[in-house]
Amino acid sequence: MSTLPPRPVIFISYAHADEPDKPAESEVQWLSFVQSFLQPEEATQNLAAARKLIAECGYHRRDEELAELEDVAAARRRFADLPPRV
What we know:
Layout: H1 30-38, H2 40-57, H3 63-73
């Protein structure tokens, strides 16, 4: 049984019309990005892909953030409790 407090309810205020169908290099599909982390199986696949890419490229600057997100996906931490990132 988890000792974490109950999960908070998250509301996303973002219109589908605001999301670009084919984003330019400087644009991000934020709604899709955020929703991917709220859907556990897709989040797990995304995190595995990120872990693999980091290992292949040797870019370990974001290891701490990746570990935090993996803890969230495994229900060891809550997303709302993670430190803010700039």
